[in-house]
Design goal:
- By secondary structure, the protein is of the alpha+beta class.
- It has a single domain, classed as Regulatory factor, effector binding domain (Multidrug-efflux Transporter 1 Regulator Bmrr, Chain A).
- Helix content is about 20%, strand content about 40%.
- The protein contains 3 helices and 8 strands.
- It has an 8-stranded antiparallel β-sheet with strand order 1-6-8-7-3-4-2-5.
- The longest helix is centred in the N-terminal third of the chain and has 11 residues.
- The radius of gyration is 14 Å and the shape is globular.
- The mean pLDDT is about 95.
């Protein structure tokens, strides 16, 4: 685990999974059907429990003002600041390890109670898992 500093707020627009974790692949399929992807776009997974079960959102950073609305998507802000994080390699070989990694990260003292569990898909083989620390 390491600290990772997000130097600016990120506006993420998203598709909400119908269930967690079963609905995650369909949410990404729906998102990538709506928005043409290229090698420069980074996929995000953003989740946290909200009044009960975990709500999972498959998202992209908004590249220009109004992009979320163009695609009919809701959006959220990932707040700048310090996150506890780790990078998983070859995550597609065992995607369940992402959940295991978040369980470890969530044991870190001083987490922001309003923060999200954030997956940043750096490439086809690497994902950064991160959770915001209190300011």
């Amino acid at each position: 685990m390491e600290k990772y500093h997000l130097d600016r707020d990120l506006k993420i627009f998203y598709v909400t999974a119908s269930s967690f974790p079963e609905g995650i692949p369909a949410a990404y399929d729906q998102l990538t059907t709506l928005v043409p992807l290229n090698k420069d776009r980074i996929l995000y997974g953003v989740s946290r429990p909200e009044t009960g079960p975990i709500i999972y959102r498959a998202g992209l950073e908004e590249l220009y003002e109004g992009e979320a609305e163009k695609y009919g998507c809701e959006s959220l802000i990932l707040k700048k600041g310090t996150y506890i994080s780790s990078i998983l390699k070859d995550y597609m070989k065992a995607p369940q390890l992402i959940g295991c990694e978040f369980r470890d990260l969530l044991d870190t003292p001083g987490l922001d109670p309003q923060g999200y569990c954030v997956e940043v898909y750096l490439s086809d083989v690497e994902v950064r898992c991160m959770v915001k620390l209190e300011s």
